[in-house]
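Attaching the record inline, Q. Sequence:
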Amino acid sequence: MKFNEMTYTRPDIDALLAECKQLAAKAAAADSDEAIVETYYEQSRAFADYTTASNLANIHYTCDTRDAYWKAEQDFFDANGPAVSNASVEISRAFLSNPHVDALTKALGTTCVAGMKNAVLGMDERTLDLQKEYNALVSQYQQIYGGALVELDGKQLTIPQLGPYKESLDAKTRRAAYEAEAGYFDAHRAELDELYTKIVKNLNAQAKLMGYHDYSELSYVRMNRIGYSPEEIQRFRDQVAHDVVPELQKVIALKAKRTGIEHPTFCDLPVSFKDGNPKPIEGYDARMAAARTMYHELSPETAEFIDFMQDNELFDVESRPGKMNGGYMTSLPRYKAPFIFANWNGTSADVDVLTHECGHAFEGYVAERDPHVPADLECPGMESAEIHSMAMEFLTAPWHKLLFGKDVDKYALQHAEDSFLFLAYGCIVDEFQHKMYQNPDLTPDERNAVWLELEHKYRPWVDFDNLPFYGRGAGWQRQLHIYECPFYYIDYCLSTMAALQFFLLSLKDHKDAWQRYLKLVRRAGLASYTELCETAGLKVPFTDGSIKAIAQEMGQWIAAHQV
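Structure, as predicted:
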């Protein structure tokens, strides 16, 4: 079924909540191992219509944040989502009270019961009003960001459409693009500062109601982090600062030599080559044709997947006014269909987001068709789900020539550099958020000072050169995750460590790397991050010294493949 044929009906929340009560009673009363497993599958299926409706509404809303009808539907789910989540938690509580609960671990792996425990620990009816308020705050942020239009080159442009100007070979054009963007955010400075203050206080209030010190503690439960804690993440960030940043400084030096920009400022960082960055082929149809060929040749599984996605028009990837920024993949369970949303702007990032979101969608497509995998365990924790996407960016490399032609070698180098450099930025975002929630009374200026301090720690090569907005340390306000899904960013770093290993493995034996990837994908959400890494034979990056060798190998490849 094509996306535009998928019907939307606002769900009956009262009926769903009543069904949840019945399922909770059934979960508590299940009197055998078989019965409790069967009930788990039943409750997982029960949310299919609600999830489908919620995700349809969100897709339509983010495709046009100015549409009054879909804004009202998004408001409906913002208001009612917490009650549904709490009802789901009560079902989890009932399962956990059942003496046969261990049968779920035997049948469905280590994440099922651990995830339910996190769900119970992360939700409390007393926070319902605060959750609704938080949802409304996020929607306000989306409207400010999604409604952004700036003047440049005699045109009204969205933020994503500034991308090509930021990569211009003319330094003044690059600076003008950043200043245009900065002007929009500075014009909304008071709103964005106030919104973030409210978000921090709201989420900390939720945490304290539930007995946590602050939201940085509660977030690990709500993010369903299984098998590691903030201490492991601190060790990971320390390794990045100690072992990765020195290698990244060498990468930046090579890049400066390659571009001929002797003292690059922040506005110069998007430029990767003296004669211009790699540009993908133009045209939606041409790119989609290339993607179809690429996935047909990669494997039988991806061939079936891309045909389903394209034949059912499950992409909305072109930027336009009113459309929310960013990119995502979401699922429509009733139709067993993933959906991909993005904002193409004519740069190589268009291919990054295409292969990235196709990685998510491919895993969702495979999991939705495996009868053994319950709907709520189709996707693992986000640090693991991002392995699917970020590894796919590299595993499609043998076919990138279809999308870049003569620029393919430039793209390979730029993509490897950008992925490697991302580790530093991702750690800034994560450490910044820990500091914000642990110090909730910081003023806006103090928050910005923390960001600049972390920039110096993890990206000492960055010179903001008195750039508005960025220069005062407010650049973090462009990062949607900080407002919309706090602490969901270190996930990208953990998955990057896996993806870089897939890249290095693929250089030696691409077929072997792909089979390892498929093995990982097929475990869906039935295994933890550590277990999934081990499934594919990858190093887990929490142990001291585990990152250094990977970082050195990446640095060596980049040095050897200068274009």
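The two ends are 45 Å apart (CA to CA). The longest strand covers residues 337-344.

More tomorrow.
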